[in-house]
Amino acid sequence: xxxxxxxxxxxxxxxxxxxxxxxxxxxxxxxxxxxxxxxxxxxxxxxxxxxxxxxxxxxxxxxxxxxxxxxxxxxxxxxxxxxxxxxxxxxxxxxxxxxxxxxxxxxxxxxxxxxxxxxxxxxxxxxxxxxxxxxxxxxxxxxxxxxxxxxxxxxxxxxxxxxxxxxxxxxxxxxxxxxxxxxxxxxxxxxxxxxxxxxxxxxxxxxxxxxxxxxxxxxxxxxxxxxxxxxxxxxxxxxxxxxxxxxxxxxxxxxxxxxxxxxxxxxxxxxxxxxxxxxxxxxxxxxxxxxxxxxxxxxxxxxxxxxxxxxxxxxxx
Length: 317
Description:
Blueprint: E1 7-10, E2 12-20, H1 22-27, E3 36-42, E4 51-52, H2 62-68, E5 83-90, E6 96-98, H3 102-108, E7 117-124, E8 129-134, H4 139-148, H5 151-154, E9 155-159, E10 165-168, E11 174-176, E12 180-187, E13 193-196, H6 212-218, E14 231-234, E15 238-245, E16 250-257, E17 260-263, E18 268-282, E19 285-290, E20 294-298, E21 303-316
Antiparallel strand pairs: 1-4, 1-20, 2-3, 3-5, 5-12, 6-13, 7-10, 7-12, 8-9, 8-11, 14-15, 15-16, 16-21, 17-21, 18-19, 18-20, 18-21
């Protein structure tokens, strides 16, 4: 019989050409350098598996638990842990990119999952924007504008502010832009096809690789804006916003102000605290949580409460 306890996770950090110091400045993380772009907060991907920080599984990776303790995840039917939660610090513009779906990635990327993702804007500079979609009406026009480098004509830019949410299905041309801090919920995949990288060079003077043919293969043309209808549920001490419910994940924002009781009938939930602090209580055991805490609620946690002033992004497959 496995214990009914949360699984707290130690994040993995990644340096990126576009990274900065916001993960240290805003979350207090001990980061690699002032070019740290990604916090892989809840991950069982081989390129950056999280480590359990508490209880009998302390020191094990999430991927080990997924393989060896399937009861913790409600015997969820998937060979791979399906989701990956990241916090991204876009200190400068990310490359314009696109991700494949499961079929294409499975065929051309050694059985990797595709990558549908979504973003919650934690913070951004004034007048920030991002690339979401494009203006080409046909594959021919799409290829021609890329070939001619007419990026301003091709790319669709969207103004953003803190609290915005974007659903980014595979096939969507996209890019986070300078001065943006986001929580990303995605399929557990590390496959990205770069379309344009601003002709940047790394410290050795080399440009990063582009993947134009694969990008043309997988891009949705013409672009389709994702239709997301938010659902909001209010109680005395909480506001729960459901951002998206679709094939790969459901994503919520929990805004808790005071004690809120929850019941869980799901295989498991991923929880990332992005603001505030409070106490998570399970079976009369109390666990402090605060901004930057990430944990999984396994399937055997049927009842729990959170007391405090806490905002969290929560997901499940």
